[in-house]
Write a structure and sequence with these properties.
Elements lengths: L7 H33 L2 H37 L3 H28 L1 H7 L7 H11 L3 H16 L3 H25 L3 H24 L15 H35 L4 H36 L2 H28 L1 H8 L5 H14 L3 H16 L3 H27 L7 H27 L1
Length: 442
């Protein structure tokens, strides 16, 4: 395996830098759709893409849940010298995702309009939302497999290759978005179709690796083993919950903004949600980049090394959080202007103001994501899932409700900062509790 190099710090950087870039590029898919839709169709169509985001996020969360859970098991098995068993677990995961993706496609297409309404589509937004979701749904298989392969190719020891493949898909998506939305005037259907084709194309590249001579992890005959599936689910639950909760939070934010502010403010939140997705996914890249290494050394029984990797992750989260918050604060006007035309001055000014409030949560988010990822990597699923649920759902919804009661609709924008602070206290408590448990066992 290619998981051990000349130094632990060198290995850490070798894995997390491509992982951050890959997650960053992955999160750009929907944002690129939004930019072209806003410029080539209308702000209402842009809002429809945002309304549809919980569906896209849901597909990614299923893929991430199984991918991270599977990657953890595979890395541990390889660390224990059980390569053939690792191949069987890998193959079973791919087959399972194929089955799940077909089920998702059938259900969504059968209940397309009720589903769009459930996500928050008003009469004005509904036609665009149906077009976007109805075009994306048949590509559920491509969404789930591409994300899963991206995670597993890093476990195979090729983090840079994962980044190259993801970047190829993103570039293709930009080209197809321009052609289908701007040149051929296909509207939101064109944006969705461009994303689906890009995801499907990347799968071909991943298969080229796993079926070729350079791939260490291979497809193998397997007998379906339900305990392994359950082990995957437990290990990947925190990552899946983090991703899926992002979609739920977009849903709750959309509903709260419609009720307590205005439909126009949804455009502001659409812009914010794109940036938030990019930042959180990049922070997730730190946790996912370190995961194969942490799981590998956990499997080998070398606690000094996987604890050292956690420290590297925390330092990286601190540096990244400060840098990205500063960049977003300074560049707020430029980011908003990417989406809004020159005739939307009042909306642009409001969007800049609430954007600068929302991004303060980035200062704390990285620590919670990295700690949750660490627990998932050493198969402490209960701790990892608790952190993810509190950070991404429980604390955020609770804070949103409390701040709306105290300050009205504008309190919504402060909820993420308050929620991240509450979760950070819980994360620190969990780390201390886990450390005390280990000391007692010794």
């Amino acid at each position: 395996m290619r998981l051990e190099g000349k130094s632990l710090k060198g290995d850490f950087l070798k894995f997390i830098i491509p992982s951050i870039i890959a997650q960053l590029v992955f999160s750009l898919y929907t944002m690129v759709d939004g930019i072209f839709v806003a410029r080539g169709v209308s702000e209402v169509a842009l809002t429809a893409v945002n309304i549809s985001m919980p569906f896209s996020v849901g597909m990614f969360s299923i893929a991430l849940l199984f991918a991270v859970g599977n990657s953890t098991i595979v890395a541990i098995l390889i660390g224990q010298g059980e390569k053939e068993r690792a191949n069987q677990v890998f193959t079973q995961n791919i087959v399972l995702l194929c089955i799940l993706s077909v089920g998702v496609t059938v259900l969504v297409m059968a209940f397309l309009e009720p589903f769009a309404r459930f996500l928050g589509a008003t009469d004005n937004i509904l036609p665009y939302a149906k077009d976007y979701i109805g075009t994306i749904a048949p590509f559920a298989l491509a969404y789930m497999l591409s994300y899963s392969f991206e995670t597993l190719i890093k476990t195979d020891g090729y983090p840079k290759l994962a980044t190259i493949y993801v970047t190829c898909g993103a570039v293709l998506n930009c080209i197809l978005d321009y052609l289908m939305v701007i040149v051929w005037d296909w509207g939101v259907k064109g944006a969705a179709f461009a994303t689906g084709i890009s995801q499907a194309t990347v799968i071909v590249l991943y298969l080229w690796h796993f079926l070729g001579p350079n791939g260490t992890i291979k497809f193998a005959k397997f007998h379906f083993h339900m305990p392994t599936v359950w082990r995957q689910v437990k290990n990947g639950m925190s990552s899946g919950v983090t991703e899926f909760s992002g979609g739920i939070i977009i849903f709750f934010f959309n509903q709260a903004i419609l009720r307590y502010i205005s439909e126009e403010a949804l455009v502001s939140y659409t812009i914010i949600s794109y940036v938030n997705t990019i930042v959180v996914m990049s922070m997730t890249g730190i946790a996912q980049g370190a995961q194969p290494l942490i799981s590998y050394y956990f499997g080998k029984g070398e606690p000094y090394k996987y604890k050292k990797l956690l420290k590297y992750g925390m330092v990286s989260a601190a540096v990244f959080s400060i840098a990205v918050t500063g960049a977003c604060y300074i560049g707020a006007e430029g980011i908003v202007n990417i989406f809004l035309g020159t005739g939307q001055k009042e909306l642009a000014a409001y969007s800049v103001d609430v954007f600068r409030v929302f991004i303060l949560s980035f200062l704390l988010a990285g620590y919670n994501v990295v700690i949750g990822g660490y627990f998932a990597s050493i198969e402490k699923a209960g701790f990892a899932t608790a952190i993810s649920l509190i950070r991404s759902l429980i604390a955020l919804v609770g804070c949103m409700g409390l701040l709306i009661m105290m300050f009205g609709g504008e309190g919504i924008w402060w909820a993420p900062l308050m929620a991240e602070g509450i979760c950070l206290v819980f994360s620190a408590y969990t780390m201390l509790k886990f450390g005390n448990i280990r000391k007692r066992k010794k």
